[in-house]
Amino acid sequence: MVATVLERPTLVLNRNWQPVNVATVARSLVMLWNESARVVDPQDYQTYSWSDWAKLAPPDGEPFIRTIRTRLRVPEVVTLTDYDRLPEAAVAFSRRNIFKRDHYTCQYCGVQPGAEELTIDHILPRSQGGTSTWDNCVLACVTCNSRKADRTSAQAGMKLRMPPVRPTWKPLYAAHSVRIASWSKFVSEAYWNVELE
Ligand SMILES: [Zn+2]
């Protein structure tokens, strides 16, 4: 029971309160103890040091961590106090990041019809063993996507404007499959950031 609570995810914000990562509760408590992070109360945005946090009694029915002296509330969001401690992570292969890499532009014809009119195209179709990876996925407008259909770009005679590669910018935060309701205040569009299968 304790192990599973400690393995729960905590959203990690940088000093500007932008989500930068997801850490385990155990890791967050270590950062709290080290004073490299403070717990954020998602209700009122108050932040807590380790000693402040340890004084709070866990509300009835909420999970808690039993320590020698006390019951500790489980943090859901923490904010880093030291900007230099940003966690390193590769750019997540997410819908948002594909749109960002391709500048909301169809990689075949170059139109920018808006996000709703753009789809993610597998250059080598999944039906032919194509993978969902940075080098096999590009944005395509609805027209190009239906024209290309279930063929490779070469088979369809359609040229890519740029070779697709994994972007090198620093991600806002690493995508993570587990999310907690209170995170929505900090992560407004989970849809865009969820790791694609
Ligand atoms: Zn197009």
Quick recap:
The protein is built from seven helices and nine strands. The protein has helices spanning 2-6, 25-33, 50-55, 95-101, 142-148, 153-156, 190-193; strands spanning 9-13, 19-24, 37-40, 47-48, 64-66, 71-73, 77-80, 118-122, 137-141.
SSE-based structural type? alpha+beta
Radius of gyration from CA coordinates: 21 Å
Assess the beta-strand content as a share of residues: 15-25%
Q: Which strands sit side by side, in order, in the main sheet?
A: 2-1-7-3-4
Low-confidence stretches: 170-176
Ions, cofactors and other ligands present here are: zinc ion
- Element order, helices and strands? HEEHEEHEEEHEEHHH
Provide a descriptive summary of the structure in words.
The chain is of the alpha+beta class and 197 residues long. It is 21% helix and 19% strand. The chain contains 7 helices and 9 strands. It has helices spanning 2-6, 25-33, 50-55, 95-101, 142-148, 153-156, 190-193; strands at 9-13, 19-24, 37-40, 47-48, 64-66, 71-73, 77-80, 118-122, 137-141. A 5-stranded mixed sheet has the order 2-1-7-3-4. A hairpin with a 6-residue loop joins strand 3 (37-40) and strand 4 (47-48). Zinc ion is lined by residues 106, 108-109, 111, 140-141, 143-144.
Features:
19% strand; 21% helix; alpha+beta; five-stranded mixed beta sheet; 9 strands; binds zinc ion; 197 residues; elongated
